[in-house]
TrEMBL record:
Top-level taxon of the source organism: Bacteria
GO BP, sorted A to Z: negative regulation of DNA-templated transcription
Gene that this polypeptide is encoded by: kdgR2
Natural source organism: Corynebacterium endometrii
Protein name, entry field: Pectin degradation repressor protein KdgR
InterPro entries: GAF-like_dom_sf (IPR029016), HTH_MetabolicPath_Reg (IPR050707), Tscrpt_reg_IclR_C (IPR014757), Tscrpt_reg_IclR_N (IPR005471), WH-like_DNA-bd_sf (IPR036388), WH_DNA-bd_sf (IPR036390)
Pfam family, one: HTH_IclR
Any one GO MF annotation of this record: DNA-binding transcription factor activity
IclR-ED domain mapped to chain residues: 54-236
Keywords for the protein's UniProt record, in alphabetical order: DNA-binding, Transcription, Transcription regulation
Amino acid sequence: MRSVDLCLILLQQLNSAGEVKISEVAREYGVSQSTVHRSLAMLVYRGFAVPTIAHTYLAGPALNTSTLTPRLGMQLSKIARPYLQLMTAATGETTHLTITRGRKTHFIDTVDGIKAVRVGSRKGQVVPAENNSGGLACLAELSSREQRELYKDWTLEDFKQLRRKLRRVRERGFSVNNQMAEKDVSAVGAALVNDMGDVLGAVTISMPSIRFSEMSALASETLRTYATELNLQLADFVHPTSPTTTPNQG
């Protein structure tokens, strides 16, 4: 792997998860820890990463323009990953954790499917929210006013088409993406919402479109089951950007 490719991967992970570990990156991408360390040292020098005493690296000040709150992805992933693993075990397909901010969906974590032909990892990618199942599930949780504010530059007709799509998501309880963004890739997704009504992210199950007709029922039922359980776990999860109140003193 070329050093520039590794630096871009590290930037994507810092931007989405807010934190990286040298050993995990080395293992996932098949490079030495010293290679990862050298790339991170350059990112530290340029302000894109900050080392910690725990031997991890956090997103640096040069990434402060990210729409994601630092470490939100890491916090959510710790809770969601066991459910991704359960969904993959139940379906054999690839599962993802995503976070949508504005009109962008960030792929935070992936559990690869166990079938020979499967959808690969999208971890670190950022895509338009309206073109993927995780983004659609999150957009459907917003009010009509919030949706229109996000897409105020769209024509009224285009926005109406999106609204119809989002209403179907609300009615079903999950979203469907059948080759909307990628040819031969289909997915279903469900939003993650805490008890305060904050939309935290989404979990998705992705598969080659050739299997979608035979797998959609199982994937949808599996998704609904585990997304419901995960939302119970996230009931008290405090969104870092949620408004807080300070109790009166005295």
